[in-house]
Amino acid sequence: MGFMDAITLIGLLGLSLAASLLITVPLTGALVRLRANYNPRGLRLDAEGNIEPHTGPVVTSFFGMLRRVKRIEGWAGLYKGLMPTLSFSLVLTIFAVAVLNANTPSTPGRADPPAAGLFGTLAFGMLSMLMSLPAAIITYRSITTPYKLPYFRPFYSLRILLTPTERKRPWILYMTPGLLAAESLHVAYTALLLSGVRALLLPRSGSTDYSLSPVRFGLYMTIEILSTAILCPLEVITTKLAIQRNHAAPEYNSVEQEVEDDALDGAEYTEYSGAEEDVIGLRHEKDPYLGLVDCAKRIIDEEGWRTLYRAWWLTMLSGIASGLASVAPNMS
């Protein structure tokens, strides 16, 4: 790909990305909040052993969460996470096109990985994941924070979203308990298993002897749909782990254990809307998840196994769209 071709492709990707974000940011925000919302089924004990009833919101549907965000935080709340999403998406798009020589996107705002076999696809997915992991953490936290984050004051926002430990040692974000493992499993499943099944059952994109077998395509789509049972829990776990902040000592919150300037003094959305409650409830930072397995076990024990399948139908639709996109270029 020539230099001018890369610049043109980056420009087209940027325009399509900006247009798509106007629609996808509110939907992504509702999805992240729904999956991050902590909704234990029963009573729990506080630090002193006293019974502490759960008082957070009970929201179990995607569209119910969307309406709740609009009611409590307004339009500004619906677009929380816009700036980090836009910034990091542009950086990843430029990297994918200019450095990794990604193909022309088959869907708007999406750069397809280079055709380099299963392990090449896995390497591309792992590299993209490692680059995007801090971006995902910052984006998810900006969506779930009750504080108002100005669009053009990134350092102020990072002071609210990250602990002093994370700001001094940003690489610690990769050490968030269980997060890297959950993301790696997700990438490995999609890059190895699903890509392998796609290569086995579907003709390669651009093949001159293209012939689509309805039986093979139906089998592939069935596997994509059934994969929801594995991918959705990983996405829920990833969301809950990404918003879990890293402190100098897990048993203390950062205000008590780290430095004085970690005290959050930003304005909350509820101060402007007059609402008496936050959009979602979050797990107390003094009782963090200790890893991937611990997170899955605690979700099942405290909130029920159905929590692992919040908005499962969106994961399923994503798989269906991926399957259709893989054959669409060759159906003309």
From TrEMBL:
GO MF terms held by the record: transmembrane transporter activity
Cellular compartments annotated: Mitochondrion membrane
InterPro entries, sorted: MCP_dom_sf, MCP_transmembrane, Mitochondrial_Carrier
Ranges occupied by Solcar repeats: 6-106
Keyword annotations of the record: Membrane, Mitochondrion, Repeat, Transmembrane, Transmembrane helix, Transport
Topology term for the membrane: Multi-pass membrane protein
GO cellular component labels: mitochondrial membrane
SUPFAM superfamilies in UniProt: Mitochondrial carrier
TM segment ranges: 6-32, 77-98, 118-140, 171-197, 217-237, 307-328
Family: Belongs to the mitochondrial carrier (TC 2.A.29) family.
Protein name: Mitochondrial carrier
Organism expressing this protein natively: Laetiporus sulphureus 93-53
